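Per reviewer request, we include the raw input and output of the structure prediction for the construct analysed in the revised manuscript.
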Amino acid sequence: MLEATPLTEGWILRHGRDALPAVVPGCVHTDLLAAGVIPDPFLGRNEEDVAWVGRREWTYETELRVAPPGYEQTDLVFEGLDTAAEILLEGRLLGRVRNMHRSYRFDVTGLTGRLSVRFASAYAEADAVRERLGERPAAYAEPFQYVRKMACSFGWDWGPTLVTAGIWRPVRLEHWSTARIARVRPLVTVEDGTGVVELHVDVERSRVEAELAVEARVGGARARAEIDRTHGVVRLEVPDAAVWWPRGYGEQPLYDVELTLVNGDGPLDSWRRRIGFRTVELDTSADAHGTGFTLVVNGERLFARGVNWIPDDVFPSRITRERYRQRLRQAADAGVDLVRIWGGGIYESEDFYDACDELGLLVWQDFPFACAAYPEEQPLRGEVEAEARENVVRLMPHPSLVLWNGNNENLWGFRDWGWEERLGGDSWGEGYYLGVLPRVVAELDPTRPYTAGSPWSGSWDHHPNDPAHGTHHSWEVWNREDYADYRLSVPRFVAEFGWQAPPAYATLRRALPGEALAADSPGMLHHQKAEDGNGKLRRGLERHFAFPEGDFDRWHYLTQVNQARAVAAGIEHWRSHWPVCAGTIVWQLNDCWPVTSWAAIDGDGREKPLYHELRRLYADRLLTLRSWGGELVVAAVNQAAAGWSGPLVLRRMSVDGGVIGRASTGFTAGPRTVAEVRVPRELVPAGPKEFLVADAAGLRALHFPAPDRDIPYPRPEFEVTVAPGAVTVTARTLVRDLLLQADRLGPDVRADRGLVTLLPGERVTIGVRGWKTADAAAARAALYCVEPTE
């Protein structure tokens, strides 16, 4: 039977003439950090002080010892090497590698001695490829498109430039005889209620003459098939299989599949995975509104409640199984049902997809191409196909994976960002997105749909980012417009949109030690990577609020309010237009370090107000008020399987707390539908002193017809009481967007809700975790709300 031995002990990292202890899996930066050679690059402006690390060559070394007796072959297996390296054993070259996104295997049968992995600088590798293939345009100056490496290692508009190197995924020795399982490609479908698993098995032999077979079992079903030289297919059927559903639509039953390679002498190797039985389609048919983009799982059409995912750490080897599970649990708890793995990152580890399988989170997987023209010649072309083939097969068992996507923004970039003229006919990636990748997916994984890019209208007949066709990225709003402009159109599927805000206060205090915090202080500006990011934050605020010059705490609070309101404006509008719009994917769920960004969860794992707002926006039932077609309407969005009906109470109110008009009516929203109720004209607010309140089944929607800076709010008055684990606020006036910044009570303190608006006489109790000494004065000091313009 094949025996695998992890090769994790005894590694060193050569640092000049010195040798430092090395952790494998890991990377150069984390080893240097552990040894005290470099400062923490996440703190202050230390990122600049460690830039030299990415431009050096580095060598990892360990001893390869004698293999256990009784095996015919021993392989050295690297699951991930970052990125360009030579592997040597006692000075003998085993091979050269140049791709972070794939694994490597070397025959070391009978060999022992000093194992060395010599990493070139990723910059040197990229420069050599660029010199050979020519210049290609990109959204950023760093040369990430010339090397098959996590692009955001080279920095992004939310990430630091920390160009890594190292053995970033596990390494092991595999000892085997006769034959081993080289690859298993599971095709999982549902046919008339029967779960079907078709396992396509490839083997590697050391003995050509041996008779081989595979035996498989799943859910009580068993089957056997012979291996014809190096390939075999075994099919299993599970009658009345329990179907896997995305969260909110049903349960997530998972089945263990076990396959064993055997010959006359017994078992030789085994393969075990968990699968889920489900079907998935992508409906891109044309209709009266353009070209749709709707995910269909088990025949159920979905409005996708999504978030974009970036690597959760700029050093991915630090992301543990527990950290993946925590972050994805946060997503699920916010009502998210789809996570898009963005194309400037990586194919994530099995731990990520395992958690998504269990939580019912659908996964949209980008191939790693983002925001650049990518050469299609060698050596890149062969690497691209090799990595695609490996990762498509690796990830196939996961029922959560529902869509392959060719790239992020490159088809759009070719058309709109001046690339076409600059390229002058040179290759730029189209052959990958419309040729290589769809061919690989069709051949290896025909059970899942493929789309060429995001955004993508489906063909060159339409602009790549045409909101009426396919997927759309909405960035004009953040870059140039007011977030109210989200309400001016109804794209078919909004795959990216978002608004920035700084991280939590405690995160900033940790990341910028000793700095007097200000919106434009040196550390704050360094941890703001977006072009004119602070300028856009300011302009976005000034459309709604008087800018709080010199008041960091108010700036911090108001920018977080603006982020939550901006995202709410988009999601409420687009969800209310289901099924024309079939999904929103917020940019972004998470951060890879402490930074001002579009994330809902900051780089220290703290939840911004946006996160709590997503819980409301992505709930099965949402109540919203919107203007459309010249009328103000209440939209009752029902994504639940059961119908939703009941009384609807409308109140036209003064900001001073008086009720000007009131009406009660009913509404009925069928399963997975949207019901609309027109607001009577006499209840439509007239001017900035009035607003509208809609209440139904414990849900509330508010409509203020003027920006906050023009509303004559009363000075907010409220009472605060505390008890173990709770802060209760009772409003005496209108209190808009009340927020308890719990981390100001202590860095480990968390609140269970974000922004809440209270009418006079209403109260809210905020759950608080990790607060050891409840104190009303401290709680009041940590409470913020919108205040009248002076």
